[in-house]
Amino acid sequence: MAEPLQPTVPIAPVETAVIELVEVPKKKRRRWIGVVIALVVVVILLVVGFFIADAYAKTYAENYVRERIVGVLKLDPAAKVDVDLGSGSVLLQAARGGLDEVKVHVDTITFGDITGEAQITATQVPLDSSRPVDKLDIQVTVSEDNVKKLSGFLSGIDLKSIELTDGLIRIGTEFNVFFINIPVAVDLNPTAKEGGINFDPVTIRLGEDEISVADLRASPEFSSLAGDLLASRDFCVAGFLPQALTIDKVQVVGKNLVVGIDGDGTALSDPALSTLGTCPEATN
Question: Using CB atoms within 10 A of its CB, is residue 82 exposed (0-12), middle (13-18) or buried (19+)?
Fold first, then answer.
C-alpha cells in the first residue's frame, strides 16, 4: 500500500548578504602649512637679526663719533660725551649713504682759562669722510662764573664786579676823584670777530645816569681819565679750535654767554679739522 503523499512546504530562498568594501580616499597632506610656518620662522629670524645688527651698528657709530669729537676738539679722553643718532635705523640711513642727524653733548669744553658745555649738531653726515657734511653747528654755553675769568680781556683796569644782564656784560669799577670813590659801570656788547670774541663798550653808567660811550670817547678830558675803560677788547678762541671751524655768533642769553661755531660744508677727513688755528699776538 503506497504511503500517502506529504504536503510540500515551500522553502523560502536564502538571501545572500553582499558586503561591499568602499575604499576611503586618503587625506592629502597639507604641505603648504609647513611651508608657511617655515617662512614665518625665517622672517622672524631676519627681523630679529636686523635689529641686532642695527643695534650693533648704532653702538659702533656712536663710539666712532665720540672718538672723532674728542680728537677734533682736543678733549680729555675721559670727557663725558653723549652721542645721539636719533630713533631711526642706522643701517637704513647708511644704505642711503649717510646719517640724517647726529647730536653730541660735551659736558666740559675748555678755551684757555674758561670752560663751558657744548651742543653739537650735524646733519646729512656722509659715510664717505672725504665728502662734506651739510650742516655742522656748535653751541658753547659759558656760565657767568666762567665769564668772570675773562676779566683781563674785558677791561684794562681792575674790576669790582662782572655780571650778565639784559643781553650785555656789565662790568663795575671805581674811580677816585678828589679822594672820592665814584662807582662806574660799563655795558659791553659781545660779538664774533676774527676767530674770537670782541667786547665793545656801549654805555657808561654813573649811578642812575647812562652816558653814550661814543660821546665819552669824543671828550678829551674823560678819554684821558678812563681810556682803558672805554677801549674795545678781544678774546681769541681760534687757537683752541680747528681751522675749519669759525665763530659766527656771540650773545648773552640769560646768565650765560653763548658762542656759536660754524663748520658747514666741512669734510670729516679735512686736515683743517685736525689742525688748530692761530691767534694774533695779544694786544691787551
Answer: exposed
In terms of Cα–Cα distance, which of 193, 113, 190, 103 is closest to 139?
103
**Is pLDDT of 64 > 80?**
yes
Q: Which three cell numbers stand for residue 27?
A: 587625506
**218 contact partners, CB below 8 Å, separation of at least 6:** none
Identify the sign of the CA torsion 55, 61, 63, 66: negative
| Window from 38-47, 74-83, 212-221 with minimum mean pLDDT | 212-221
Q: pLDDT class for 30, splitting at 50, 70, 90?
A: low
- DSSP characters over 64-81: HHHHHHHHHTT--TT--E
DSSP lists the bridge partners of residue 261 as: 138, 247
Helix, strand, coil abundance in the chain, percent, nearest 5: 30, 40, 35
